[in-house]
Amino acid sequence: MKNENKGSTEETTPPKKQCKVCSKADFRYKCPICLIPYCSLLCFKKHKEISCVKPAPAPENAASTITTVDVDRPCYVDVADEVLERSQLECIATNTEIIDALKDKELQKLIHKIDSSADAEIELDKAMEDEAFRLFTEKILSTLNQSGSQQS
């Protein structure tokens, strides 16, 4: 596996899906309040002994409802060809139809649910059943195809 963050090609291992309570087992669940990962009911109960806090939502800004993303968070992929190039990401980020679609609160919630899930692939499969999400992904793919044909 390669760390594809910021163009680095050094060999790294993917982050461990370790329980943040006992640090012994892989987590399978996340606290519904603070999203801390845990592995069992016992760890959940232990976690609840300490008061957990719901992450504060980003302040609503009338000019923009799109929140920023932690771009320094490492991204791990199995196949290097699946990593988008900077120019492709810029095409997506500047496409007005995609920007407008991302203003939809339900779409934002769906994307957040996928991103914060312990098993994002399962959540992505579920999201694909939603027509608005499916149309959103088709628009991204269309934009990528257009940017690919322009670069050729």
Q: Any low-confidence stretches, pLDDT <50, length ≥5?
A: 1-10, 61-66
Strand line-up in the sheet with most strands: 1-4
Q: What radius of gyration results from the CA coordinates? A: 18 Å
Secondary structural class: mainly alpha
Estimate the strand proportion: 5-15%
- End-to-end distance, in Å? 29 Å
State the helix count.
6
Assign a percent range to the helix content.
40-55%
- Overall geometry comes to elongated
Q: Please count the beta strands (DSSP E, at least 2 residues each).
A: 4
Largest sheet report: 2 strands, antiparallel
Order of helices and strands: EEEHEHHHHH
Q: Indicate the mean pLDDT.
A: 77
Overall number of structural domains = 2
Q: Can you give me a brief rundown of this structure?
A:
The chain is mainly α and 152 residues long. The chain is 42% helix and 5% strand.
In words, what does this structure look like?
Keywords: Metal-binding, Zinc, Zinc-finger. InterPro entries: BCD1, Znf_HIT. This is HIT-type domain-containing protein. With 152 residues, this protein is mainly alpha-helical. It has 2 domains: 2-48, no CATH class; 84-151. Helices cover 42% and strands 5% of the residues. The protein has 6 helices and 4 strands, in the order E-E-E-H-E-H-H-H-H-H. The protein has helices spanning 41-48, 86-94, 96-101, 105-116, 120-127, 131-151, and strands at residues 2-3, 29-30, 37-38, 76-77. Helix 2 crosses helix 6. The longest helix is centred in the last third of the chain and has 21 residues, at 131-151. The chain is elongated. Residues 1-10 and 61-66 have low confidence and may be disordered.
